Each structure stands twice: as C-alpha cells, then as structure tokens.
Task: structure prediction
Amino acid sequence: MKLGVLCSGGDSPGMNAAIRGAVLRAVDVHGFEMIGFMDGWRGFHEGDWIPLDRSAVRGLSPLGGVILGTSRVPPFAGGRGEDIDLTAFRARFAEYGLDGFLLIGGNGTQTVSSLLTDAGIPAIGLPKTIDNDLGGTDYTFGFDTAVSIAAEAIDRLRTTGESHRRCMVLEVMGRDAGWIALHAGMAGGAQVMLLPEYPESLAQVCDWVTSVRDRGRSSLVVVAEGFRLDGAEQAVTRDGLDGFGRPRLGGVAEVLAPLIEAGTGIETRATVLGHVQRGGSPTAFDRVLATRTGMAAADAALAGTWGTMAALRGDQVEMVPFGDAVDRLKTVPADRYAAVRLNFG
Result:
C-alpha cells in the first residue's frame, strides 16, 4: 500500500510527531510506502514530494512547525459536493500510485477528507488545531502547547502588572471558540476571560477590573481574538483577509485596554500574543497525542477504515466517522463558561 501524507491549514505543534508516528507504524510495522507532499496541496498539484521512511522522521517528536510545510492552497477548484470537478485530481492521484491519503488538519482539512472519501478517493484524518474547536474529538494536538505558552505569558504579565498596579490585557487566538482563553486564563489565575461565544458589556468588564483593584490586586484580563463587546456587530479586525477569505482578526486587546482605562481610571496595557502560540517545541502531552494519532491512522489504513478521523475519546484514540467532526464547530459550552464566570473579578 502507498500512502500520501499532507498537512493543510495553519501550523500546530505536534504535526511532526504525528508524521513520525504514522511513518514508523505504516512503514516499519505494516510495510507500506509513504510519501509526503510539500506545503500542503501545492505539493500535490506541482509534484513536490519527499519519501517518508524511518530516517526521514528521525528526531521529529520534539520539533515545532512541520517538516513538510503547510499552506491554505485549495485542493481543487470549484465549490462543494457535486460542483467539484475531480478529473484532474484523480489523474494526479493515479499518477502518484497512491492507495489513500493521511490528511493532517483542522475543520477545513477534515471536510476535504470527507469529500474525497465520498468521491471514492480514500482518506483518513488526523485532527490538529491549536483552537481545539474541531468536533468529534476531546482534544486536538497543538492545543495543549498553545495553552501552556499563553499561561506562561500570563505569569510574566502578572508580575509586571502588579509592580505598576496596572491592568494587563492579553489577547490570545480563538476566532469562534474561546478554549485557549478559557484554559490559559484558568491556569494562570486570570480574573477575567472573554470568549467569542459570550459577549460581555464594557460596564461589566470594568466592574470586574475595579473589584480586583478594590481588594488590592491588579487585574489580568485574557481575551480571545474573536471576542466582541455586547452590542458590537462584529469582532475587531485588521486590514486584509485570511487564507479562507475571512476578515483577519486581531487587535481586540488594543481596543479594549483604553476603554477599560477610561472606564476605571486604572492604567491598562495590552499585549497581543499572536503567532508565538503556534511556535516552539510541543508539550509532552501534544507529542504523545500526536504520535498516538499517527499510529492509529496507519492502523486504520491497514484495516481499510477509510472515511474516519483519529479522535481522542477519554484516554483512548478511536476512529470516528468524518460526519462526527466536519461542520461541527466545538465551542465552549454555556454551563462551562457560567461556572468559571462566577469567579471573575
């Protein structure tokens, strides 16, 4: 059997470990041949690939980024479903002599995996995203690393904030789901966590910050990039569009900080963590999860369990249908936010 490995979408810590796990199981245990396409679908379209064997993945587990590269290049032209012309795609697939794909990515990539499988082109999904917003799995690899980096930033901001009696506002990633803000805020002991799912009024945010000041502390506010104040029509955006044609988010902390300062009289500073959350070595948790995901995907290919994604359910990695994952944005549940919100301020 010959498998093609491809990464698509944003980078996420643990992708290298996932490739290593898949290659060691597929090549050394099952006797498969594997190739990796460079820079996502660009490599597939342009014939840019490398062979993947034990020597190619040596020492990959602790490395951040991804050796194959990734991109948001679309897999095919056209729309979705019956609108897609797969003639050229099938020809490429046959030219490489592939029996199936192992596709590493988030919601968009797993949606493509599902479309390909439905069209008779076998695919298995490996779920990665730092946002942890993909349905069908408890955790995606990359999330734990992003939370750890954000929690460390909170620890550092707290000391400088306390020194100057300032309110510090930290912006983390999270367009539609606030998992990073929630987990990092809880880990770092932030007094306020603002999530895209649950708008809050400026007056309420200022009340929380003031209550912290009144008991002799300095506030630490964690805000996800997709958060919007109650009554605002949209989240704060920067110029341009992202790789999916959506308005590019970012800067909500820089907007919020002066509003908090004006509303409370407390000196307030903003920090945008940005792509630091994606970089560096993955945590041990993400290395293990990614490795297990890669091994499970290779085993699924051997068993012919195409059209599935390697998902973490409890402490087990299970193969779940793409229908359990795609087009199912996993957001922070209302009861989870409500329980944490009781401790704000």
